[in-house]
Design goal:
362 residues; alpha/beta; Rossmann fold; 12 helices; 45% helix; binds NADP nicotinamide-adenine-dinucleotide phosphate; binds 2-acetamido-2-deoxy-beta-D-glucopyranose; oxidoreductase; oxidoreductase activity; NAD(P)-bd_dom_sf; SDR_fam
């Protein structure tokens, strides 16, 4: 009898898990069956995780897919695997290290010389560090790779995208964007930058959301559209930098509760191919649906400021960073204000973001 009860309990637990997995964890699948024959796609960081699954899907649809990666060995292994699974031999590797603006420029030059077309650019690569490093150009690692590298890359490829309309840019962001306010002093390379790898990552993801917003504003009327994406909480190598003890806990939790990379790629795929979402250009998607972002991530004035600031940081604008301009930028530092109030007898936490003045000159 105990045996029967045990079996029933285990069966119940397994069914509950399967129910939760398919309804909440696995996520929504992209429904489009659009073919990408004759189209060219770039996926950055496509040798593993969400990027590899995204590239695999693009290859299945018949696209020519460029895997833009920093490690030749890892990327070539992925190229072989994707070719084998899809029988599409139009899958190629091109070297790109987003931690170096020089490498970004070299990639763009090679790509523009050798590839006549570009229809879909997927800015997928993402760096999350525990120990804070700096990029070749002196940016903190997360912001440098995730935002500035992709910012320059997109700008250098924009003309080609405009020649191949309708075309799209997909930017991998993350829900962590909510956890920080935009602080220009932490983006610049002359300042000490971030003190914490997680904040650096979250900050870069806020930049990604604002970047997609401003890019779509600038592209209005061109038929090039862009979208930012939260892929879900996905079991990839993004956690590989955590220490051994954290990994020990995280590995089983991730295996059970996180989305698999194929599920994590669905919203990127949706934003790359789904017809009829063009009117949502500049917006943020998760689970293949458009979502509202918090107020400080949809402020057009801040998004424009970030764009102009980034242009100067990556050397796209030859205007020097005038101290007044810098000071002006610092006016857009956001601080979160929390207060609690009683409404109808319940205590409610009120959150709002306010801009505060911040002078780098003290
Ligand atoms: N996993 C999640 O739960 C989650 C949640 C929210 C958002 N995201 C976002 O989704 C995107 C994909 O993440 P993932 O989970 O698939 O991560 P992942 O498994 O760690 O893959 C990241 C990819 O980015 C590449 N990369 C890192 N630094 C690079 C550089 N300097 N130049 C070029 N490529 C570089 C990596 O290349 P190497 O293999 O050579 O390092 C790898 O191919 C990221 O933008 C991430 O922020 C993920
Ligand atoms: C954008 O697409 C529409 C609808 O296909 C077309 O009428 C228009 O001419 C296009 N505009 C540009 C700038 O390509």
């Amino acid at each position: 009898e105990i045996m029967v009860a045990l079996i029933v309990a285990v069966a119940a637990a397994v069914s509950v898990y399967i129910f939760i997995y398919y309804n909440f964890l696995k996520g929504v699948k992209c429904k489009s069956d659009v073919s990408l024959n004759g189209r060219t796609v770039i996926v950055t960081g496509a040798n593993t995780g969400i990027g590899k699954e995204t590239a695999l899907d693009m290859a299945r649809r018949g696209a020519r897919v460029v895997l833009a990666c920093r490690s030749k060995d890892r990327a070539e292994a992925a190229v072989l695997d994707i070719r084998r699974k899809t029988s599409n031999n139009q899958v190629v590797f091109m070297h790109l290290d987003l931690a170096s603006l020089k490498s970004v420029r070299a990639f763009a030059e090679t790509f523009l010389k050798s590839e006549p077309q570009l229809h879909i650019l997927i800015n997928n690569a993402g760096k999350r560090c525990v120990k804070l490093g700096k990029t070749e150009d002196g940016f903190s690692m997360g912001v440098g790779v995730n935002h500035f590298g992709h910012f320059l890359l997109t700008n250098l490829l924009l003309e080609r995208l405009k020649q191949c309309v309708p075309s799209r840019v997909v930017v991998l962001a993350s829900e962590t964007y909510r956890m920080v306010g935009l602080d220009f002093s932490k983006l610049s390379r002359t300042e000490p930058g971030h003190t914490n790898g997680f904040l650096d990552y979250a900050h870069s993801k806020l930049c990604n959301v604002l970047f997609a917003r401003e890019l779509s504003n600038r592209l209005e009327g061109t038929n090039v559209t862009c979208y930012s994406v939260h892929p879900g909480v996905v079991n990839t190598e993004v956690f590989r930098h955590l220490n051994r003890w954290l990994m020990l806990i995280l590995v089983p939790v991730a295996a059970l509760l996180f989305r698999d990379p194929e599920g994590g790629a669905q919203t990127s795929i949706h934003c790359a191919v789904q017809e009829g979402i063009e009117r949502f250009s500049g917006r943020y998607f998760s689970d293949c649906r458009v979502r509202e972002v918090v107020a400080h991530a949809r402020d057009d004035a801040v998004a424009r400021k970030l764009w102009e600031f980034s242009e100067r940081m990556v050397g796209l604008s030859n205007k020097a960073i005038h101290p007044v301009m810098l000071l002006d930028s610092f006016l857009f530092v956001y601080k979160e204000e929390k207060s609690s109030r009683k409404i109808d007898g319940n205590r409610v936490i009120m959150q709002r973001f306010v801009s505060v003045k911040f002078s780098p000159l003290g």
